[in-house]
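Appendix B.2, paired examples.
Example (i):
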Amino acid sequence: TTRLLGAFFATAVVMSSLVLPSQSFAAGEKSAMPTMPKAPEISADFPFESHYIDVLGSKMHYVDKGEGDPILFIHGNPTSSYLWRNVIPHLETQGRVIAIDLIGMGKSDKPDIDYTFADHIQYVEGFIDTLKLKNITLVLHDWGSALGLDYASRHENNVNGIAFMEAIVPPGMPVASYEVMGPPGEFFRTMRDPVKGAELIIKQNMFIEEVLPSSVMRKLNEVEMDAYRAPFIDAKSRKPILVWPNEIPIGGVPANTVRVVSAYGKWMVNTDLPMLHLYASPGALNPPQVAEWLVQNVNNIESSYIGPGIHYVQEDHPHVIGKAIADWRRRLMK
């Protein structure tokens, strides 16, 4: 497990040493750097009322704050609406903020389904239809980006704009082969092995216990870790976490995911729908090179650098993210 994680994050760790500021001072010497204002606290609290709605015969959990046109937050693997807890307050005055828990994740039900990308598409679209959400601003991360971008590509008239980070987007996705991924290819090949993947993800709960905290620059405290552990306490609850890495479009497999990701990728570079890409260095899915490609190839996109980060950037820079989205959306709605 350690070797696999090392392979997955080796590039990120090396790159972070290049982009993070470093200072060295002689004994007793003080920095000449001006004192920077203290960053707002990153709270572990989740001070939101729980709401539930029936979708396809199962209860889906969501946060619902504010009024007006909806701002829909969609998380990825292995997180939940908890990921957005420090971002949500920055948007509450701008509209009806809704943060969904994907089916089988967070506080949503765990029906006996396959939990494929196609399954999640049906539940997310069912959620939007059941709540009758119109004129949506999407805020997306990880697999939530694939779900949101697919929805937007098929319902463009119902979407005002899209903010996304660490997303499943071109030019990195779909992936031609494990080999072109470099060190992370070994990680994903192992995750997709029916025996090894199940051992690591189902039995050892590696995505929660190792991948998640290793993809955050700061150390998550026990309150935060327990919040992420809560939906996946026992082995039988972890099926959704296992299926997600098997759905990543690598080498033409799985065919349906390749088709959907390719389709919305082509749509992204042709639509005039306003987009905001928030990126970190070194990043994981979206390093600065991807941010540059998106700026060069997507018609109506803004790019915002949020600081040093790997993948779960909401745990490192939630207030920067929230303020950037609020500023972009304020201009968007004029």
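Example (ii):
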Amino acid sequence: MSKAVRFVLPLSAALLLVAGVAHANLALDGDMEAASPADPVVWQPYAAGVFAKTGDVVYNGTQSMAITQAGALGGFHQVGLAVEPGKTYRLKFQYWRVSGTFTMRVGLGTSSGDFQNNAFQSTAAQAGWSSFARTFTLPAALPGTLRLVFLCSGTAYIDDVSLTEHNLVKDGTMEAEGTASWVNYSTATYGKSEDAAYNGSQSMFISAAGGFQQRAIPLEQYNSYRLTVWYRREAGTVYARLGNNTSNVDSFGGGLT
């Protein structure tokens, strides 16, 4: 279920700097289209895993990765992904468990356990592909490299692995040309500026009472979210609030003043 939430930034004579994220896939060879696991050398054996590219069972493209284990859990992992402390990421992949137990975990500094004790496991019968998605926030101090670990005690296929920095706010970086992703709140005068930026080349400024907002942000019920805003107040009062179908109050408590 989605929730229509409005992200509102009403300010008075202030300069707002919002840090955003890129959405490039950080999982190398996530589409499994490289010639073999060793080309490039990004998917490595884990626990004596038996795995190989195959064109026989594919979700997308021409290849997937097949794990063919006899008994004990084994598979493959990717180590040292280019992530940053404190940031939020979304992991998504397609899998087909044919037999045995299929397990996927996200490790920090080790491939032997999940850093949130939240490993995914499937023993259910499947007649085709299933999708798995997970959003997680890394700790401020990373105890080692991030690892994506795929394991099976029978046969499983994996395809379309993606790990992307997660941001539901459109144009959160303020790097887009113009302000089409944002709409007026009250009678503000606002726009993009290259005079000052926290990151990248632009920020959003407000030079009169009021502000700007983004409506209908697609949140999911019972999930947890984190809002991060970088701002510089030159005068007046700065507010940032999250409204549930309203732009006039913070519906979740707190907010920035």
